[in-house]
Design brief:
globular, 5 helices, alpha/beta, three-stranded parallel β-sheet
Length: 99
């Protein structure tokens, strides 16, 4: 299972034009950290947002890439980040409005 998740993550990053990581904290760990590091290794745009002042500004590089047809959205499971669903919806709504 550990190896499969890493392969799935790599494929998702490779096949997307950019990655958006949504978490409840400024610190990345586990799969989210692996996702960011792999996107950086490939030179793919990757943005991490979390609930704090300025998250909309941090999202600007993704919003500005209007040619994105495939966006990889990653982050912690709801079971590991209780209440994250509301923020995820807010971020995705902002992304749709901004493009």
């Amino acid at each position: 299972p550990q190896q499969n998740y890493r392969e799935r993550t790599k494929r998702n990053v490779r096949e997307a034009e950019a990655t958006l990581i949504i978490t409840s904290s400024s610190e990345l760990s586990g799969g989210s950290l692996f996702t960011r590091d792999y996107a950086n290794k490939l030179g793919k745009p990757c943005v991490h947002v979390y609930p704090a002042d300025g998250w909309r500004q941090r999202m600007k590089p993704i919003v500005d890439l209007q040619s994105i047809r495939v966006l990889n959205v990653a982050g912690a499971r709801a079971s590991k980040a209780p209440g994250i669903e509301r923020f995820v919806y807010e971020v995705l709504d902002e992304l749709v409005r901004g493009s």
